[in-house]
């Protein structure tokens, strides 16, 4: 009679083992899901970082055509007076806000000087000129009709720099312009004044 009501230790142990095994499988599945999710998140973040890095490392603006300079022909102090450059966005680049763009002028005889757009100027003020602290915009080509100061795909902005107001660049002297958009790398332009200063010059 005692045999009939005795506990079956083998059967109970098998049930416990099955429960533990199921628990292990569930935990492993949850852990795998969490790890996969973390992996996908890390991959996405890595792609975003790479994309941002490429944007920051490449310039979003470039020069279209040559620099055109005018000369100050005052006897004994001939030098470059103004410089005009045509800017356009790079292929595949984003729009550039010229209202927050800087143009830095430098030369062997001049410390870097930042020029910005005149405060308060809008699209309707074009054309406007610059001075020793600002740059001007002479014209807009292929305007897409938005009437703003964003340099967008297909557009070209003719920018003027009053170079003489910053530094006197005589014959055969070097100078540098750095276009610094709010996003993207700086676009640098190196030029040398010709051996003879004239009214209109092409700087290549």
TrEMBL record:
Q: Where are the transmembrane segments?
A: 12-36
- What InterPro entries does this protein's entry cite? Flagellin/pilin_N_arc, Flagellin_arc-type
Q: Where in the cell is it found?
A: Archaeal flagellum
Drop me one GO molecular function for this one: structural molecule activity
Q: State the UniProt keywords alphabetically.
A: Archaeal flagellum, Cell projection, Cilium, Flagellum, Membrane, Transmembrane, Transmembrane helix
Principal subcellular localization: other
**GO CC annotation:** archaeal-type flagellum
Statement: the UniProt record of this protein carries the keyword Membrane = yes
**UniProt GO BP:** archaeal or bacterial-type flagellum-dependent cell motility
Family listed: Belongs to the archaeal flagellin family.
| Function comment | Flagellin is the subunit protein which polymerizes to form the filaments of archaeal flagella.
Q: Entry's NCBIfam families?
A: arch_flag_Nterm
- Protein name, as recorded: Flagellin
């Amino acid at each position: 009679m005692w045999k009939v009501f005795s506990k079956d230790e083998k059967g109970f142990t098998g049930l416990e083992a099955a429960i533990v095994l199921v628990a292990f499988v569930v935990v492993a599945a949850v852990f795998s899901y969490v790890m996969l999710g973390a992996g996908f998140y890390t991959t996405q973040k890595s792609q975003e970082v790479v994309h941002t890095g490429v944007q920051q490392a490449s310039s979003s603006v470039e020069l279209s055509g040559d620099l055109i300079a005018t000369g100050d022909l005052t006897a004994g102090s001939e030098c470059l007076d103004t410089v005009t450059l045509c800017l356009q966005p790079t292929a595949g680049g984003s729009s550039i806000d010229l209202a927050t763009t800087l143009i830095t002028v430098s030369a062997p005889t001049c410390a870097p000087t930042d020029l910005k757009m005149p405060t308060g100027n809008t699209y309707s003020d074009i054309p406007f000129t610059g001075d020793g602290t600002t740059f001007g915009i002479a014209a807009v080509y292929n305007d897409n009709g938005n009437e703003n100061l964003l340099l967008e795909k297909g557009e070209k902005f003719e920018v003027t720099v009053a170079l003489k107001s910053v530094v006197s660049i005589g014959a055969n002297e070097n100078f540098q312009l750095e276009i610094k958009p709010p996003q993207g790398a700086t676009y640098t332009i190196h030029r040398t004044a010709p051996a003879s200063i004239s009214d209109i010059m092409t700087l290549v």
